[in-house]
Amino acid sequence: MRACLVHLIVILFLTAGLAVAQDAIPVSAPQGLAETQEVMPPSVADRDQPDQPLAETPDGSIDSMNDEFTEDELLEEYTAHENKEEKVEMADPLEPANRVVHEFNDKLYFWALKPVARGYNAVMPEPARIGVKNFFTNLAFPGRFLSCLLQADFGGAATEAGRFTINTLWGLGGFLDPASGGELKLQKQDTDLGQTLGVWGVGQGFYIVWPILGPSSPRDTVTLAGDYFLYPVSYINPWYYWFAVRAYEEVNATSLRIGDYEALKDAAIDPYIAFRDAYAQYRFKKIKARKAKLTSSASDSLLPAHSKNIPEGGTP
Amino acid sequence: MKNPWIRFILIAMLLLFTVPVYAGVPLDSVKKSVNDVLDVLRDPKLKPVSATEQKKDKLRVIYKSMFDEIEFSKRTLTRNWNNFTPAQRTEFVNLFEQILENSYADKILSYTNERVEFYKEHQLSDTQVEVQSKIITSSKEIPIFYRMILKDGKWRVYDVVIENVSLVQNYRTQFSDILAKDSPDKLLDVLRKKLSKK
User: Fold this and answer.
1) What is the ipTM of this complex?
2) Does A20 touch chain B (CB under 8 A)?
3) Looking at the predicted structure, is the pLDDT value of residue B189 above 80?
4) In angstroms, rounded to a whole number, what is the distance separating the alpha carbons of residues A216 and A224?
5) Residue B198 banded pLDDT, cuts 50, 70, 90
């Protein structure tokens, strides 16, 4: 009985210690913090008011409005299994030119693409438009297949090959997508050559807005060229047939997402910056996800994310 | 049970596994809010166009309890928050909230027959969790992640990540671009103008 009591006391101390150690994590996050300093622009890293006490209301709860912002609150950017986060922000040396092209694309959308897509929307029922989208997605198979191969993602390449065969033969040439449903569950591998370069370690570079084609970067511009050659539609002769088919594909795709562009633009304080940031975040996380997929398929014994979060954080 | 070590290990395991008490709570709370929103959107009594304002009022109540708008504002301003006076902070939070409401209300009201699936809870830190969900429409799936923070015993959303794009970060880039050149007063002015344009 006495032994049991002693054990209990020991355990209580242990758990108390554990709780204290856990509390300490956000403050002392070992490797993470060193990286934190890097990400912050140096000018703001030395803050003017370092340790403002927490403002408390009479009832003892924390008054968020008067509470100062502290560095620890950016913890969200350092996820459990990823202590180092590269800067998601994109350099923009071409800003003045980019803004002009951005305006042009914006007008193109509101004056040409949107009205046409609206009209098309009215005459084509949604299932047909989804079918057309599937058809073009199926046609773009070579680009995704090659990207998977170049990333040494053989599972992904096999999935793509299977999808292409099944959807072409049993999906009426690609209009239906039987491969992703039912028991097959072969999902489209969302990848391209730009992501492949990203996985290989090529940096994003700076921001470019191309007329008509929209947001890009030097790395993703390579994709535009590479995917052009891997996309069967590009080989349509003469060129104006190719152009017509591409324009139709674009109108069809737009008809399925009218309103998305407007919502993001409406909500933005500076739409140009909002789209630049959205593009940077989107590409960055896509590539991160591809990298994660590749490493996790290489070593299946990865621990679940949150179990890594707790133990090693105790001592700095 | 003779061996005291077995007893020790058993009790230790019991205590260890009771540590993450809140597992599942953030997911359930955001799921409930989203389902409440969907109920309002699908309510046949609120179908007519004349009931739009009524719908908006009901939605406002839901998202006020769901979102931590001060945390949201603070995170978009980061260190700039400290340069705002308390009065400026209050005004900023209010203006920002109205801008978001104006621009997203119509988008949300247009949803009716979409399905929402909650599938994962990912722990970011002791008091922060990312709840992962997706909206399934007839033509696509849109991943939406809610980042939540525990304050005063309540889990509330401080960031929404739509298709890999974090709203907080998106606004952070925009605000820091403005505040690098201009004062907090100027930023408030920009927000006021944006609101009055609507």
Assistant:
1) 0.79
2) no
3) yes
4) 9
5) low
Find, in chain B, the residue whose alpha carbon is nearest to that of A284.
B164
Do the Cβ atoms of B173 and A3 come within 8 Å?
no
Q: B184 CA to chain A: closest CA distance, Å?
A: 14
Contact B82 A25 (CB under 8 A): no
Q: How far apart are CA A40 and CA B71, in angstroms?
A: 20
pLDDT of residue A20: 41
Pick the closest to residue A194 from A228, A226, A223 (CA basis): A223
pLDDT of residue B132: 92
A26 touching B (Cβ < 8 Å): yes
How many Å apart are CA A217 and CA A206, to the nearest integer? 6
**Residue to test with chain B: of A5, A129, A273, most B Cβ within 10 A:** A273
Q: List chain B residues with CB under 8 Å of A130.
A: 138-139
Which string of DSSP letters, residue by residue, matches A73-94?
GGGGGS-TT---------B-TT
* Percent of chain A whose predicted confidence (pLDDT) is above 90: 10
> What are the tokens at A126?
């949604």
Residues of A in contact with B104 (CB under 8 A): 263, 267
Residue A313 pLDDT level (bands cut at 50, 70, 90): very low
Min Cα distance A212 → chain B (Å) is 22
Environment class of residue A283 by beta-carbon count within 10 Å: exposed (0-12), middle (13-18) or buried (19+)? buried
Distance between A66 CA and the closest CA of chain B, angstroms: 6
Condensed to tens digits (0 to 9), the pLDDT of residues B88-131 reads: 999 999 999 998 888 888 778 877 778 888 988 888 888 888 99
Q: Searching chain B, which residue's CA lies closest to the CA of residue A4?
A: B4
pLDDT, tens digit, 9 for 90 and up, residues A286-301 = 888 888 888 876 654 3
Q: Take residue A15 and report the two structure tokens written for it.
A: 């758990």
